[in-house]
Amino acid sequence: MEWVCVALIIASMVYSGGIVVEYTNYNLEIVPQVREIERKTAEWKSAALVEIDEKERVKIEIARIRDNLGDLQLEVDQVKLRRQAEQLRKKRLDMILLKSSIRSNRKARMNFVREK
């Protein structure tokens, strides 16, 4: 009977040794993979934080550009109004000059006719 107990003990030890070897092999394969996943996760978190900061910076820049665009649009509208006013002024001056030219031509003709 002792031989049976010894055989069971040896078989249990071999089985336990197999479990330990299997766990060690599994641990040697899985631990590096877990570490690599953790490293990549940290890199992605860092990259995500950088992207969030960049996104906020771009939002601020877009808001600033929109404000500038609104200011520029107002300036363009003012310049258009000034241009229209100047064009109207030029037309009026041209009309005055034309009237003056016509009047001076009439006076010159009348003086010419009187002299004859």
Shape descriptor: rod-shaped
Largest sheet: none
Strand content: under 5%
Computed Rg: 49 Å
Find the structural class using helix and strand composition: mainly alpha
Helices, by number, come to 1
State the helicity in percent bands: over 70%
Uncertain residue segments: none
Order of helices and strands: H
Overall pLDDT level:
90
Distance between the termini: 165 Å
Strand segment tally: 0
How is this structure best described in words?
The protein is mostly helical and 116 residues long. It contains one helix and no strands. The longest helix is centred in the middle third of the chain and has 114 residues. The radius of gyration is 49 Å and the shape is rod-shaped. It starts with a helix and ends with a helix. The model has no long low-confidence stretch (mean pLDDT 90).
